[in-house]
Write a structure and sequence with these properties.
Order of helices and strands: HEEHHHHEHEEHHEHHEEHEHE
Number of helices: 12
Largest sheet: 5 strands, antiparallel
Strand content: 15-25%
CATH architecture of the largest domain: 2-Layer Sandwich
Radius of gyration: 32 Å
Shape: elongated
Strand order of the largest sheet: 2-1-5-4-3
Oligomer: single chain
CATH superfamily of the largest domain: PAS domain
Helix content: 40-55%
CATH class of the largest domain: Alpha Beta
């Protein structure tokens, strides 16, 4: 929990215990420290029942488990249950030293927590509104943090221009595809694709037009391959394509020809027309890991590049 959240909970005039799904204590506020003389060092990450023995009783365990499983809130009155946490110093006689208990589940995305609110009966009408506002604020901040994490992951694994997977994400998918091919005795292919004449486009029309062309090429490649395949951009005008669950080389050639044909139609910007040189490596004969397969397809692509261009060859 952040410092602001801790400050809020520590200023409440009631005991606040927050436990996780394993019933480990993750919050023990200042009121409880004063009341029990047990510090946060004594309690945090400890089992609830070890610190507060009454919660080892079957009826309380049932209430907590029901709160986790079904989201039920339970209120336990002081008139029936008397005390839940023994004070370090008994300031009152046993007749009036009683507490109320509220067991309340809170869910933040996929994580579930239980808030145990211990009311000394003197403070029965304490600051519930502050706690609920705090819970709402934590949920909002949690959602914002998750959104930020997703954005950072998107940026880390995708090309910023085309939004295609980058080399890192492509390598991860290729690794999983290799494991799948090993288990199921299937082929996979890596196609290394380099645009022919892209430098001339940049020199003639400028890099802005070149960037737009790369986006259009990306869209065309995606629309040509299957949904189960992966198109990634490694940088510049270099793309790499992963074909999975391939039965034979003829299926690879069919897709390779489709990729070449998709460049025959001029692109929407300045009626530009470019072609592609492609090198193809096949698992397992051309490489046993992702690096070998990418390198083999790269070398094959340069064979095409240095000869006729606008074609493909196998490693």
């Amino acid at each position: 929990m952040d410092n602001i959240a801790k400050d809020i909970l520590n200023k409440l005039n009631l005991g606040i215990i927050v436990i996780d799904s394993n019933q480990n204590i993750i919050m023990w506020n200042n009121w409880l420290e004063r009341f029990t003389k047990k510090t946060k060092l004594d309690t945090i990450n400890k089992k609830l029942a070890d610190i507060c023995p009454r919660f080892a009783e079957t009826n309380y365990q049932n209430m907590i488990e029901t709160a986790f499983l079904k989201g039920h809130t339970r209120f336990c009155s002081s008139s029936l249950h008397k005390i839940f946490i023994s004070p370090a110093i008994n300031y009152y006689n046993d007749n009036i030293n009683r507490q109320n208990l509220l067991i309340e589940p809170i869910s933040i995305k996929d994580d579930m927590f239980i808030v145990l609110q211990i009311y000394d009966i003197t403070f029965y009408h304490s600051r519930m509104l502050e706690l609920k506002n705090f819970i709402n604020r934590i949920e909002k901040e949690f959602i914002e943090v998750k959104a930020s994490e997703m954005l950072n992951k998107q940026l880390a694994l995708h090309d910023s221009l085309t939004e295609l997977p980058n080399r890192l994400l492509f390598s991860e998918r290729l690794l999983w595809a290799i494991k799948y091919a090993q288990r199921n005795s299937t082929l996979l292919a890596v196609i290394f694709l380099d645009l022919d004449g892209f430098k001339k486009v940049n020199d003639t029309y400028g890099h802005n037009v070149g960037d737009i062309l790369l986006k259009l090429v990306s869209n065309r490649l995606l629309s040509t391959v299957r949904q189960t395949d992966t198109v990634a951009r490694l940088g510049g005008d270099e793309f790499v394509i992963l074909l999975t669950e391939i039965k034979d080389v003829l299926a690879i050639e069919l897709i390779a020809n489709k990729l070449l044909n998709c460049f025959k139609t001029p692109f929407e910007i300045n009626n530009l027309k470019v072609s592609a040189s492609m090198g193809i490596s096949v698992y397992p004969q051309d490489g046993k890991d992702s690096e070998e397969l990418i390198n083999s397809s790269d070398l094959a692509m340069y064979k095409v590049k240095n000869s006729s261009r606008n074609g493909y060859c196998f490693s």
